[in-house]
Design goal:
mainly beta, Lipocalin, ten-stranded antiparallel beta barrel, 2 helices
Amino acid sequence: MISLSCDKWLLTLTTILSVILLNLLLVRNPLYSRDSGPAEGEIRRLTDLNTQSPTEPSWPHTGAGLLFGAGISKVSPSKKNTQTPEKDLLLQRWSLSGSLFYPLDMGLGFGKFTREPDQGRAGLVHGWLQWTAWEEFGWPALAFRLGHSRLYGLSNTEIRTWTGNSQISWGYRRLTAWIGSSASFHQIFGQLSESEPETDLTIDKHETAQPQQAGYQQSFSLHALIGAHLQLIPDLLNIAVERQHSRNQQTITFKVSLIL
């Protein structure tokens, strides 16, 4: 019993230290520390938009049925640019998640940017798999996720992102809190151009003209997240809030979930 208890504490401590280490790596991430032109900065912002989180605790969905979620995310730059200020974006989100078999869950999501009615054509779709590596009554739950998302509706550009996530949750009665970190690999297809902007995600026309970036590009980013989940009506209605941030951008998400 003593050995088993020590193993639990070792697992919990190792996970917490790993999350803290990833957060420190995020702060020191050289991909977001060097200066860049407007086009490169815009690509960074778009890849951050395509890094999605389910906004759920680490617990498995086994026996809970399907979980339908609806929410809204506010996307804003981590550091304000006084010369060419970037506007905050609002993302409406819908998701459906459930258990494949213990301890594996999966989910699908859809998002639409609707800050302005005439510029709300950009959106994204994403899916994820979750493996709950550790969960036991009275102890934190540890989960790993693998997700893929696609950002569409941009002028001549498509962004696809693969994201790996680790997250640990603590629950007390109806309240659950979590922290986590993720690493994302981004693929940018096509070109990011200033001409004929179709959405509010394209480069600002008032910026100095830069050469078009065409073809295929890759980038990597790190993100940290913290959130909380509350059971308003047990086995029926939940609410959750989460903050996800990188050196380039932060996203605040509010989500309401209905258990079907």
